[in-house]
Structure formats: C-alpha cells, structure tokens
Amino acid sequence: MVAKIVKGKSFKGVVNYVLDKAKQTELIAANGVRLKSKESIIRSFITQSGLNPKVSKMVGHISLDFSAQDSDKLTNAKMGQIAKEYMTKMGITNTQYIIGRHYDKEHPHIHIVFNRINNEGKTISDKNDRYRSEKICKELTKKHELYFAQGKENVKVHRLKEPDKTKYEIYDTLKAEVSKCRNWDELKKELQKRGIAISFKYKGNTDEVQGVMFQKNGYTFNGSKIDRQFSYSKIDFQLKQNDKAQNIQQANHHSQNQSSVLGNTVSALGGLFDTPTSGTDYDPDEAEFQRLHKPKKKKKRDYHL
Question: What pLDDT, on the 0 to 100 scale, is given for residue 282?
C-alpha cells in the first residue's frame, strides 16, 4: 500500500476526475457533502472552504494504491475501512470527504478527496504529511496483512512514461553490472553496450571527482537520483571491493595450483623428501598471504553526493 498526496485549489477538477465514468468509478464512502450530483458535491466543498478563505490550497487529494496480489481480499468495504483508518492516523478528521474506487488499472486503488478546511473552519495540517503517510502506509500494510512490494525491483518499467522509463532502465542495468565490474573502465564498456553513457562532475578546476551522471535516450540523471546506492562514491567503493575480491580469488587459485604441482612432484619421487608432519594444517606462508590481503575495515561514511 502506497499513497500519493496532492494539494490543490479546484474542487471541481478533482471531483470530476475521481467520479469520471470512464474510470468505472464506484463511490464507496462520503461525509458532509450532498450526493445528488457531482455539482452538488463540488458546491458542498466550496461552501465549507469559505469558512477560511485565507487558505489558498484547500483541496486535499490522496490516492491509495494496493498490490494486484491483494485484489481478492480488497472489497469496497475493506478498502473503505483502510482509507478511514489512514485518514484518522493522518489527522484528516471532522471534515468533508468522498472516497472513490477506480477500475482503470490492474491494481486496486482508491482516491480520497477531502476539504482541508474542517467543519469548524480550521485548517487540517499538512506538516510532514509525506513522511507521516509513508510510515502509516507501512503500519496499515502490516496490520491488514497486505503484500509489501520490495521497492524499485517491482516497478513495471514498460508502463512508465518518460523520463521515468529511461531512469528505471538505467537502474536495472546498474543493478546488474556494478556488482560484477572491477573498475570504471569495465563499467563504462558494459553500460555502452546497453546505450548508456557515463560522465563525471569535478570539483572546480581540479581532477577530484564529485559525482557521476548517466545518459540514455537524451535524458541525463545524477547517479544518486537514480538510487542512493549509485552515487559516485558508493559505486567507486563497490568497484574497489569487487577488484579486491577478484585478486584474492585469483591468488588463492594460483596458490592451490602450485601446491598441486608440488604434491605431484613429491609423489613421483617416491617420498624422497618426506618430512615428519606436526599434525596440523597450518601453513605460515598461506597465513601471511591472507593476513596481507585481508580487507581492511573501513569507517562507516556517508557516501551521498
């Protein structure tokens, strides 16, 4: 369950949108408005907003979107219940509202239109509303045992419009390639195969890199805007870690091959150079190698641009 919050000035525009017949709308709940027609609903909202004419954006519009995986359990009554719980937790109380369900997309979703001027002429606060909304959505998703989508991986890129479509295409490519490449040159080559170019931002007139940008289909995005894990510093750190891991793996493989050759030689000589063993697998040379190549622990840093 996720919410999108919009504030506006026109009740007419939002009511006409929410009750659009083309979206097969079902009005599942309402409070404090006359339901004779769309026009009477609009007039009801406008009349109450006149109690506090100083507020310029008196229209509240929130869409609540649910996963298609919850379709079977989300009846109109259930969605209305969740919407009212959400509104109460958000402090949207003692005011007019309508709740409409749309059927124009494959996933269940509803629209809440409410008057930010409550029944007493006071303004319903929007302070930190997006932060509070995100927290409440997670609480209600857990409470009602709804499906919890795992971030960008579940976005249906083919349904996005530009520039978001290109942005998510770059995200998917970076997700696949950054974990495999050992340096920036390798990453550049792999991204170029997929039509993505890289450029860097420098500090003043110096050679110190401060950021990275990715270009595709005529659009340019800062790495951190695609996702925080793709800021320059975080990608650079990951590439270095990949390189260290590859070096250690190759060195270990080489050491094992040498041991195998030596073992075969001794065996062929019939044990001529056999010496008493100490009953342990400890190898001082191998231990020293691992000590020298053990990744150093780094202090936690904030790698955001």
Answer: 46
DSSP three-state, residue 279: coil
Residue 40: half-sphere exposure toward Cβ, Cα within 13 Å: 7
pTM of the complete model: 0.54
What the block records as the tokens of 241 is 């870690």
Contact residues for 63 (Cβ-Cβ < 8 A; gap 6+): 3, 4, 109, 110, 111, 112
> How distant, in Å, are the alpha carbons of 134, 144, 171 from that of 195?
35, 43, 13
Q: Which two tokens stand for residue 149?
A: 């989508």
pLDDT at 274: 44
Give the 3-state secondary structure of residue 303.
coil
Specify the amino acid at residue 174.
L
Using 50, 70 and 90 to split pLDDT, how confident is the model at 16?
very high
CB 238 within 8 A of CB 178: yes
Which segments of the chain does DSSP mark as H helices, in order? 11-18, 38-49, 76-90, 129-143, 164-177, 184-193, 223-226, 232-268, 284-293
d(CA 270, CA 89): 82
The residues, any chain, with a CB within 8 Å of residue 128's CB and separated by 6 or more, are: none
Angle made by CA atoms 157, 162, 165, in degrees to the nearest 5 = 20
Using the CB atoms, write b or e for 263-293: b if 16+ within 10 Å. Answer: eeeeeeeeeeeeeeeeeeeeeeeeeeeeeee
- What is the distance between the alpha carbons of residues 15 and 37, in angstroms, rounded to a whole number? 11
Q: How confident is the model at residue 303 (pLDDT cuts 50, 70, 90)?
A: very low
Go through the domains of the chain in sequence order and give each one's CATH number.
2-149 (3.30.930.30), 151-268+283-305 (no CATH)
Q: Determine the Cα–Cα distance for residues 18 and 104; give it in Å rounded to an integer.
A: 11
